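Sample intake sheet
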Amino acid sequence: MSTPVHGKDAIRLCNKTVSDLANDIARPGYDRARLKPGIVHVGLGNFHRAHQAWYLHRLMQTGAALDWAIVGAGVRATDAVMREKLLAQDCLTTLIELDPDGISVEITGAMIDFLPVEEGNAALIRCIADPAIRIVSLTVTEGGYFVSAQSGGLDLAHPDIRHDIANPDAPRTVFGAIVAGLRVRWTSGEGPFTVQSCDNLKGNGDITRTAVVTLARQTDPDLADWIDAKGAFPNSMVDCIVPATGPAEIALARKFGIDDAAPVTHENFRQWIIEDDFCAGRPDWDCVGATFTPEVHTYEAMKIRILNAGHQVLANAGELLSVETIAGCMADRDIAALFAKVQNTEIAPLVGGTPEMTSLEYVALITSRFSNPEIHDTTRRVAFDGLSRHRGFVVPIIRDALADGRPVDGLALVEALWARMCAGVRENGSAIEANDPEWPALAAAAEIAREKPDTWLAQSHIYGDLARDERFSQAFVRALDMIWSEGARAAIRGYTG
């Protein structure tokens, strides 16, 4: 555990000052000047720095993987802000582990550079075309894969994808940049790099392969065939609760004597399950706790359905009832009862176990993790991009439950709480600010559904044909009617008994 520093000015984090930090703060034991790049990571937010970069840092602490250092990258204009912050502190990161029994602080140094964020992504393409880069990894959120709601493949009608097809040498998207970099490798006779998704998607590697190969095929079928045959896109399951960073997190780092513009807080749990499918080598992450297995989907299904869908069970109810954090939701008797009943009776029975635990044991683990009062993970963060998260995490469970003849009243209530949240007003009258890339359309649909609840399910890009399933649609209409007429808490109590 680390001890706060009282009465001293915080030290601005950088290579020159890291040795001046308090003795109980762990820091890199390897010579960062000797590190050589091997990975480019696109979407360098808090989760990556608390998860993949942490595993690599721990491996470097053993003296291994010094030629696998991370170069950060981003394809959105907003990524430039993170680039500026991290370069100013030599790409060092303060990780603060929030355990109810105490706080531990460490400085990680596996990242060594951050590429310019620019229109056309020329710097990114040049970097990943370099044979020294053997992995390009991604955390671009569930909604960043341009998955077509109709086909399940790459959405070729999306404006950014259409731009990349028309401008393959100056793409907007990460997938356009990956194709452009692989094209350089192919024409120069070099081998491809592995593309490694670290996002919460079922079959994230398969989805990434489809996106890259499909996009390449639009301009060069031979290149697409080479990528498909020679490239690698391992599936993986990633897990660690990592809240967003704000003034409170920056102030917490300062309490430990560290002036860090972008510190990361996280829970005292990590898991990384990876398919061992790499075409240009990989770090030995399994030496520091990761698991390589061909059974990724088993772990993935349990985590996505119980943890990720479970977040949506909590977040929308919490937003409506002005409960700020996930831990606060778990401390709320009604929301916690909703979570427990939906999980134990409607979700867990549809989830197989892993060699380590049953689905009900995993529910108990997630209940404990979500209840950690030290983790200030906001309901707003968890509810962000609800369209992608409900469509990806909750709707597949509903389909399986209906096919299996299992109850869906709780899942229908979860969707009704989301529909009510999208109306943009909490039950105390305060406004819910736009929190979804599709917020205007969702807000309009929510307002119509206030009087005609069944119209919410008519959004076929979310629910497909579920509106025609009377058992689900009737349960949804009952739930949304009750939420609007009697309130969310009454609707939840009506379900939990």
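Comment: Residues 424 and 432 are 5 Å apart (CA to CA). The chain has a mean pLDDT of 96.
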